[in-house]
Specification:
By secondary structure, this protein is mainly alpha-helical. It contains ten helices and three strands.
Length: 258
């Protein structure tokens, strides 16, 4: 096994490319964008015969060094998927600077590690409040009244808190979404029952808005339109399972309380 030299450079480039792709896929980037980014970074490092294949759960990358005529291939598996598009934007900026020759391999590695280890841009309490605002807004948008804003806000906050905390311990997102839909719907029904709000359907809709799989569904459509059928179908299946989890949680709530 050679250390340093051409293969050392190839290994280093492979590492930063896969790290960039892992961050992008983990935090909500489309698969075709990941593939394009990794291919451009590899070609900017003077490698040829570059091929990248990304799915929602893994990335395969291979390229060839001109002088050695040896192919190097590695893969990385993506176990967790979250939504933080600011990190995707940061990785895109690093890739642009690397392709333009403004960053060395080591500088790119340091920046990517900093992005991967950085905390979320917004604190959890602000995310929960924003979820409540979105829930109240959508309850009004779907025909609710002004008096429905407050119970929808509270129910959406409950849903947001439950899905985050339960996923942290259960490690199964669909179970966390089912539980969050149950608690959010229960909160909505209880608040309307005791006199806060008058349109139950709209309040329940508001409580579910933090759980709606908007980014996975959008990415599924974009992947399908770009020809990435495997990634598009898998993302669509993920969005469908999330929708079924939400529907099941609300169905259980309604069967118990109504």
């Amino acid at each position: 096994m050679r250390v340093g030299g051409i293969m050392g450079k190839a290994d280093d480039v492979m590492d930063i490319c896969l790290l960039a792709g892992e961050i992008m896929l983990k935090y909500g980037a489309e698969t075709y964008r990941v593939e394009e980014t990794l291919e451009r970074m590899s070609k900017a490092a003077s490698f040829t015969n570059v091929h990248c294949f990304a799915t929602t759960t893994g990335i395969f990358l291979s390229f060839e060094e001109k002088k050695e005529k040896e192919d190097l291939m590695q893969m990385v598996r993506i176990d967790d998927r979250m939504q933080d598009l600011s990190k995707v934007t940061d990785v895109n900026q690093v890739s642009r600077e690397f392709v333009a020759g403004e960053l060395t391999v080591e500088e790119a590695r340091q920046k990517l590690n900093a992005i991967a280890n950085a905390p979320m841009e917004y604190p959890l309490w602000l995310i929960h409040i924003a979820s409540g605002v979105a829930g109240g807004g959508f309850s009004y948008l779907f025909g609710g009244g002004w008096f429905d804003l407050f119970p929808a806000f509270l129910a959406a906050v409950v849903s947001s808190i439950v899905v985050v905390e339960f996923e942290r311990y259960l490690k199964v997102r669909f179970a966390a979404e089912f539980t969050a839909a149950f608690f959010g719907g229960s909160t909505a029904i209880i608040l309307v029952y005791i006199g806060f709000g008058s349109n139950l359907d709209q309040v329940i809709i508001g409580s579910l808005m933090p759980l709606v799989p908007g980014v996975p569904l959008t990415n599924a459509v974009r992947d399908l339109m770009s020809g990435d059928l495997v990634a598009g179908v898998s993302r669509g299946a993920e969005a469908l399972l999330t929708s079924l989890s939400i529907a099941s949680g609300i169905a259980l709530t309604i069967s118990i309380f109504l």
